[in-house]
Structure formats: structure tokens, C-alpha cells
Amino acid sequence: MMNELELLNNVMGNLFDNDADSGCNVCGTPDVDVKETKTEYTLEMELPGRTEKDVNIELDHGTLTISSIKEEKHEEETPENDSAVKEESTWLIRERRTDAFSRKFTLPDDVNSEGIAASFKNGVLTISLPRAEAALPKRIAIESAA
């Protein structure tokens, strides 16, 4: 059942509500959609401005961790074609921001960890978590004690 897929929130994440306008909560942790079918679970996370190289996915003892650290640089400087001015210039505006997040999910027991696959397209990370085939009931023959 999907209720077995538990989100492990960090302490700060519980203090803030989701910001409906941004698609992310106030802490900068991306929202996640999880879908369940008979054969798999599918997790989708919107990560605008990131690529597959910016994201790290790890599985450790039934816990799936999705994390990312991205440094954004916004700079205003003198024109590059004037090297004399550039050498004498001072930064008037130079803004840097590091954007990082980490989300952890405890996977249900029926996930086949060997078959987990991830893809990244148009800023959306999709992780397929195939379900292991359920063990079929086995009929046990009773032998005569003659």
C-alpha cells in the first residue's frame, strides 16, 4: 500500500507549510508526487533549473535519498572587451546563492531495489520503483502416515 511509503521530514521542514505559488515549500525542498499501480510506484519531483548532473539519488537499507546542491551566480561587471577598465573595476553587485535540499523516503518492503530506475526530462525527475512479484500461495500436499 502507498501509505507504507513514509516521508521522513527534517525538523525544520515540519515548521513550514507548503507555498502553493512556488511549487516548493518555504525551506526550498521540492514537492513530490507519488503514484501507485499494481506493478510499480512512481515518484515525480519538479526541479526547475537543475539537470541530472545536479541531483544525487541513493538507496541505503530501504531508504531512498534524493539530494542536490547547486550554486547559482548572478554577476554584474564591466564589459569584457575593455580589459583596462576590468582590471581597475570593483564589484558593485555580486550575488551568490547556494540552493540545497535532501528528501528521504522509506520504501515499502515490496519494492524490487534492483529494478529502480530514474530519468530526468524537462526539469522533472521521475523515479520508477518496481514492485517485486508477490509470492503465490503454495499448496502443500499431505502425505499418508501408513
Would you kindly provide a written description of the structure presented here, covering whatever features stand out?
The protein has 146 residues and is mostly beta strands. The protein contains 1 helix and 8 strands. It has a 4-stranded antiparallel sheet with strand order 1-6-5-4, with no helix packed on it. A 4-stranded antiparallel sheet has the order 2-3-8-7, with no helix packed on it. A hairpin with a 2-residue loop joins strand 4 and strand 5. The two termini are 46 Å apart.
Structural class comes to: mainly beta
Number of helices: 1
Query: How does the major sheet shape up?
Result: 4 strands, antiparallel
Query: Which spans have pLDDT < 50 for at least 5 consecutive residues?
Result: 6-26
Percent helix range: under 10%
> DSSP strand (E) fraction?
35-45%
**Overall geometry:** rod-shaped
C-alpha-based Rg, rounded? 24 Å
N-to-C terminal Cα separation, in Å?
46 Å
What order do the strands of the largest sheet run in, or round the barrel if closed? 1-6-5-4
